[in-house]
Amino acid sequence: MKRFPYIFIFLVLASFTLSASEDWGRNGHRATGEIAEKHLTKKAKRAIAELMNGESLALMSTYADEIKSDKAYRAYGPWHYVNFPFGATYEAHDKSDKGDLIQAINTCISVLKDATETKENKVFHLKLLVHFIGDLHQPLHVGMADDKGGNDFQVQWFGEGTNLHSVWDTKMLESYEMTYSELAQNSDQLSKAQLQMIQQGEITDWMYESRSLCEKIYATTKSGDKLGYSYMYDYVPVLRDQLQKGGIRLAALLNSIFS
């Protein structure tokens, strides 16, 4: 009986550790949403607040991942990524009949711009859009079908087995040990000219930018590599830059939709 309190404390701490670890997977999306909030126009802020009853972009940014466990939303799984071979172009490559990240983003934009759509449908697609713009700026979400966007690309991360996709989705941010709000608050201070430059282009232009990073990652990483501090030194600045670009571009897109 005397051991019970210690066992109880251990279980509580273990539960907290698991929950905290799971939360790291959401940090990138929430940082992107938080950064976007800073760059919304007053008109866009009002429209989104009215539509979402005050829910922040950071909070809604993880919704598209949260519904994955529900069979009713299984059809939206392929919307999180776009795959085509290195050396090929998205335009020339066969499109998935199940949809992809580019088709998903364009669908969300169309729904949000359609005055005949229901509020419920607009809320749903706004949540998806916030998430998908984040996915668009994660280089491994613009990868190759052969290894499932890096999910079959096995590496070690600080001595533990994982895959390259997981390194970019969660492991680097987890090792960096900053909350999403800290990541957003410590994003680079940019001039008006720099902001305008980041906001330029179309969805596919932003996709190809991520694709270029994906090709660089594959060129500098081999299957079975032991990744750690050196990899973080090389790529954490790139990752943070992608989070900021995603937030700035998300804001520009939302400002245009709700103008």
UniProtKB/TrEMBL annotation:
Keyword hit for Hydrolase: yes
GO BP annotations, alphabetical order: DNA catabolic process
A molecular-function term among this protein's GO annotations: hydrolase activity, acting on ester bonds
Signal sequence range: 1-20
Keywords recorded for this protein, A-Z: Disulfide bond, Endonuclease, Glycoprotein, Hydrolase, Metal-binding, Nuclease, Signal
PANTHER family: ENDONUCLEASE 4
Protein name: S1/P1 Nuclease
The species this protein was found in: Cochleicola gelatinilyticus
